[in-house]
UniProtKB/TrEMBL annotation:
Cross-referenced CDD domains: SF2_C_SNF
Start and end residues of each Helicase C-terminal domain: 228-377
Keywords recorded for this protein, A-Z: ATP-binding, Helicase, Hydrolase, Nucleotide-binding
Record SUPFAM superfamilies: P-loop containing nucleoside triphosphate hydrolases
Keyword S-adenosyl-L-methionine tagged: no
UniProt superkingdom: Bacteria
InterPro entries xref list: Helicase_ATP-bd, Helicase_C-like, P-loop_NTPase, SNF2-like_sf, SNF2/RAD54-like_C, SNF2_N
Domain Helicase ATP-binding: 1-124
GO MF annotation list: ATP binding; helicase activity; hydrolase activity
Listed name of the protein: Superfamily II DNA/RNA helicases SNF2 family
Length: 398
């Protein structure tokens, strides 16, 4: 019985290369793209079938209902974290006694994520629904930890590669200009009034305040410059003057548009709208004149290697979950990196950015504790709501 490996499209070629390198004796068949239909006859002789989440979802009814697989392996398994989406439901129907998931972010938002992953591996083990999991474990995370840790093999770079260069994360706190600070406070007061009068909610207000900090132009505000962007440009200029390459992450494509337009240098870029990711990655890795790589965090936090000639990362803004930022950093800080890696985060004082960092660190501490092999006895797990609660949002915005 062949093993079925389901992966994001962005890492399909990586799997093909690594299987050829580490298991050359295995017959590997990739079922993706238009040629997959003509290769069905080869399945019987294959040891490993490779496909993508989207392809599996499209082809399930026609090709995956009857076969029994020796193993089903999901890479970047956070792709199925939403139990309601079609892909998540499809992988559950696959016929195999052995199931394995691989992910760097088993919990991205809340305990619903870990329930979905375990329900794929062992249906019902953590309850018949995420709601049941919450009822059982929200007030007893130690019991949850004991239930899941025998089935988790967690490996970090330091565990397997002791000679990695250092990784330095520099949080650069700075003051907004007087004009921007006044405009920010006025905008915040307006948003809080909107929340009070039910015109918008706290989460929407937080998003708008974050965008204001990144660059008011994202909201149509006519500022010629912002403190954050000026600090950012200075750092990029310093790196370019030294002939160094820089990877820049933002959640917002519009922010990358601003950066691309104003920097005025050659760059490569990967976001949700870029079709030929490999060509852009190759340009950055191989062309000495392409010093800048622009990427949206969501589209480029896995399956991308940028460490060959670069050791500088700027997180222009932070994801809700620290683990996702770490995945992005891992595009440069990975096995094969030979230089110390510099990670920079710009944080505007007296704004929601400060609160976001604090909540991010607290949430990650709770996630690490739940995934740990060590007992939680004596640990402070107050505020152990994994997602952004309304209380969190209120504290951040105040």
């Amino acid at each position: 019985k062949p093993a079925l490996v389901v992966v994001p499209r962005s890492v399909l070629e990586n799997w093909e290369d690594e299987l050829a390198r580490f298991a050359p004796g295995l017959q590997v068949l990739s079922l993706h793209g238009t040629q997959r239909h003509s290769r069905r006859a080869e399945i019987a002789g294959a040891d490993v079938l490779l496909t993508t989440y989207d392809t599996l979802d499209r082809d399930y009814a026609e090709h995956y209902v009857d076969p029994e697989f020796g193993y089903v392996i999901l890479d970047e398994a956070q792709k199925i974290k939403n139990a309601a989406v079609s892909t998540s439901q499809t992988v559950r129907k696959l016929n195999s006694a052995n199931r394995l998931i691989i992910t760097g972010t088993p919990i991205e938002n809340d305990l619903d994520d870990i329930w979905t992953l375990f329900d794929f591996i062992m249906p019902g083990y953590l309850g018949d629904s995420a709601k049941e999991l919450h009822e059982r474990y929200d007030n007893d995370l130690e019991d949850l930890r004991r239930r899941i840790y025998p089935f988790i093999l967690r490996r970090q770079i330091a565990d397997v590669k002791t000679d990695m260069p250092k990784k330095e994360i520099a949080d650069i706190y700075y003051d907004a200009s007087a004009k921007q600070a006044a405009a920010y406070q006025q905008f915040k007061t307006q948003l809080k009034d909107d929340v009070e009068h039910k015109k918008r909610n706290y989460f929407e207000s937080l998003l708008l305040l974050r965008q204001f900090c990144l660059h008011p132009a994202l909201l149509g505000e006519n500022f010629k410059f912002t403190s954050k962007y000026e600090q950012f440009k200075k750092l990029v200029a310093e790196k370019l003057a030294k002939g160094e390459k820089v990877v820049i992450f933002s959640q917002y494509r519009e922010m990358l548009d601003i950066i691309a337009k104003e920097l005025g240098v050659k760059y490569a870029r990967v976001d949700g709208g870029v079709l030929n990711r490999k060509a852009e990655i190759d340009r950055f890795n191989n062309d000495p004149e392409v010093k800048i790589f622009l990427a949206t965090t969501g589209a480029c936090n896995s399956g991308v290697n940028l460490h060959y000639n670069c050791n500088n990362i700027i997180l222009y803004d932070n994801w809700w979950n620290e683990a996702v930022d770490e995945q992005a950093i891992g595009r440069v800080y990975r096995v094969g990196q030979t230089k110390p890696v510099n990670v920079y985060r710009f944080i505007t004082k007296d704004t929601v950015e400060v609160g976001m960092i604090a909540v991010q660190k607290r949430k990650q501490g709770i996630i690490n504790a739940v995934l740990s092999v060590d007992s939680l006895a004596g640990k402070d797990l107050s505020g152990a709501d994994f997602g952004l609660t309304e209380k969190d949002l209120q504290e951040i915005i105040q």
